[in-house]
Amino acid sequence: MSWTKEEMAQRVAELFPKNVSVNLGIGLPSMVASFIKEEDGIMIHSENGVLGVSGKPKEEEVSPTLINAGKQTITIKAGASFFDSALSFGMIRGGHIDYCVLGAMEVDAEGNLANWMIPGKKVTGMGGAMDLVNGAKNVVIMMSHFTKTGEAKLLKKTNLPLTGMKCVHEIITELGHFRPNGESFDIIKLAPEVTEKDCALPN
Question: Which stretches of the chain drop beneath a pLDDT of 70?
């Protein structure tokens, strides 16, 4: 039985020590905010200029002026701050973000990441991903284990244009928690009833 998206987000949230800064990417990674405990003192950064993002707002809390980089409405915690993009990316490029959580199209055994384009298909651009994988101290990938056509996304070597080289530290999919080791992937934990064979890891 594979993990649900919520269980994946919970697993990612458990990777963070107390009192760290975290940037959550667009899509699946944004779910992690709802599983971060207030008492852990974690500050969530959004590259559009917010430090102190909290979980999803209730219907009566929605504000059109409070959004994250993915244009989703957000809530903020006490002590939150707002700033322009120059300062936001200064935080990232200056190495002041402890963890970033991103989606991916492919990750290989060396920790190389491809998450921004497939040649021949229309793309919106790199966004802040290239800055994050080089500026954040720890890069966590949260993604589906297989493509829509059933191809594994954990590979011996990536085939797509790279976002960053040797930058990925941890990977959470619906099948488990993995870590690139240079030759393949170490299995940290598998979802219930999932076997190593189910994961189609490279030899």
Answer: none
What is the structure's pLDDT at 57? 87
> What number of CA atoms fall less than 13 Å from residue 96's CA on the CB side?
14
Active site residue 47: yes
What pLDDT is attached to residue 113? 98
The per-residue pLDDT for 33 is 92
Domains in the chain with CATH codes: 5-199 (3.40.1080.10)
Residues 6+ apart with CB under 8 A from 138: 98, 99, 100, 169, 170
Nearby residues of 124 by Cβ (< 8 Å), 6 or more positions away: none
* Active-site residue (options: 7, 38, 39, 47): 47
